[in-house]
Amino acid sequence: MENRIDVVLTPESKETIFQACKSAKAGMPYLTKLSEEERKTLQKVDDGRKPFVQKSLEFATNNAALDPGSDLLRGMQKDIELYAFLSAVEHELHQLLEMVNDTKQLAGSEAYDVARFIYMKAKMNVKMGIPGSQAIADELGKLYKQSSNVTKIKELPH
Questions:
Q1: Fewer beta carbons within 10 angstroms: which end of the chain, N or C?
Q2: How many domains does the chain have?
Q3: φ and ψ at 81, to 5 degrees?
Q4: How many whole angstroms separate alpha carbon 2 and alpha carbon 110?
Q5: Are 119 and 144 in contact (CB under 8 A)?
Q6: Are 147 and 111 in a shared domain?
Q7: Domain shared by 51 and 76, yes or no
């Protein structure tokens, strides 16, 4: 067993992190929550469609015959700028989330490995006749089986 991560979180550091998350949300009060149906029906702009959108704006800006109206054109320009900004934010958040997930998985895995070692020692203590070991081994055994069943359920194909 290797302890690859050894972190002590102070209440202050936890609060700083949560406040940074809250500040990010507060800094973007325009963020929207879509329903599942809305997500399905809205057109999606990706790297393939982005040049089309940008070129359309350029043509409409420079050609009065294509102008959909100044309000729509200004709105389109703002939408493109917001899209570009949120894409950059999304990239940073994806990196952060990946690192958070990986670190969480590592911390959980290390704790689980030690827990299994403790369970194994409890079962060895039962075999060695150490008083009180049976109750500990039984309790850990129940919890171990429950956690194994949860893992198996999550792994079933959908």
A1: C
A2: 2
A3: -65, -45
A4: 8
A5: yes
A6: yes
A7: yes
